[in-house]
Amino acid sequence: MKDIAKRFPENPLLSPSDILPSHKDLQIACLLNPGVFRYDGKIWMIIRVAERPDQKEDTISFPVLTSAGVEVIEISKGNPELDAKDARVIKYKGVDYLTTLSHLRLMCSDDGRKFYEPEGYPLLIGEGFLESFGIEDCRVSYIDGLYYLTYTAVSPNGVGVGLRTTSDWKKFQSHGMILPPHNKDCAIFEEKINGLFYALHRPSSVEIGGNFIWLASSPDGVHWGNHQCVLKTRENLWDSSRIGAGASPIKTEKGWLSIYHGANQNHQYCLGAFLMDLENPVKVIARTEVPIMVPTKEYELSGFFGNVVFTNGHVVNPEADSVTIYYGASDEFVCGAEFSIKEIFSLLQYI
Ligand code: MAN
Q1: Domain range holding 317?
Q2: Is residue 273 situated within a structural domain?
Q3: What is the per-residue pLDDT across 160-216, written as a single tens digit (0 to 9) for each?
Q4: Domains in the chain: how many in total?
Q5: Are 267 and 297 in contact (CB under 8 A)?
Q6: What residues does ligand 1 touch, defined as CB less than 6 Å away?
Q7: Whose Cα sits closest to atom 9 in ligand 1?
Q8: 90-99: burial string, b at 16+ Cβ within 10 Å, e else
Q9: In sequence order, what E strands does 180-308 have?
Q10: CATH number for the domain including 176?
Q11: Taking the model in full, what pTM does it have?
Q12: Is residue 88 assigned to a domain?
């Protein structure tokens, strides 16, 4: 499979060794899946930083958040009650855990390629039990002077969508969990439609249905209803197993353009696009049959969890008719690629 991404020659833009861990007992295992926004004349990323303790030969150890702070759990690899086949999740005594604990960290850049940690801005870490396995994959939407941060909140109770808002990136208001488990990949549209907020999100239905993209609306950006399924996985294609929206959809003359990720049965993650009606986004009018981006580079093929390109952040460059997508490569590196919007449209097939 070919793709139309113009990858930055500087890739990976950020690797785990580029920043310092948040805690003395932890190391950074992965930097991934940044939310992206413009603020104060710069391009900013809010990166997912996944950490764990230094791994010893005979044990698996992983951190969780408790009311007392970070606590490390250590299990012997030979323990018959341990199932650790997936690099990302483990099962122990029938309970699921994550192998890493993620927080969100701000980085900024003058040119969109060289990123550094700004001084005086806080880290965002999980708050309370519903975020005790961490917070991940933050999307940022700017609406009427306020930034809406929708992120994955993970805990023993499941995976849901949390919301915080800010206007200055220093003080944040927490709105708790806005979509309960199992749900992730929530991207709020950056403009209201007929007075309502809209968002794409991805609940998972285990027995009937699947991992499909849904649309919801809200009077205030916090309370969501009128949920409708808009896009499904497709058998035997690159997006046969799971799909989920990327960042906030891009407003174009022809409709709302959403970049999304799709995974197949082999856990290969590619990117594609679909188009929603401008006035009535529940109507999907076109979708790419082929992906617009496929993991092909070394840094996309091997890493913490290889064969993955995943995005939840971009900036639109209207004068160039292009979009710069920032993405997580192999769940370990942060990378960038530019796409011509015209070229994305040339791959869309009208339904
Ligand atoms: C999946 C992967 C992990 C992530 C968990 C919880 O297993 O995307 O990286 O930590 O879900 O969201």
Answers
A1: 6-350
A2: yes
A3: 999 999 999 999 999 999 999 999 999 999 999 999 999 999 999 989 999 999 999
A4: 1
A5: no
A6: 88-89, 98, 136, 152, 154, 159
A7: 88
A8: bebeeeebbb
A9: 183-188, 197-203, 213-218, 225-231, 242-245, 250-252, 255-263, 269-276, 284-288
A10: 2.115.10.20
A11: 0.97
A12: yes
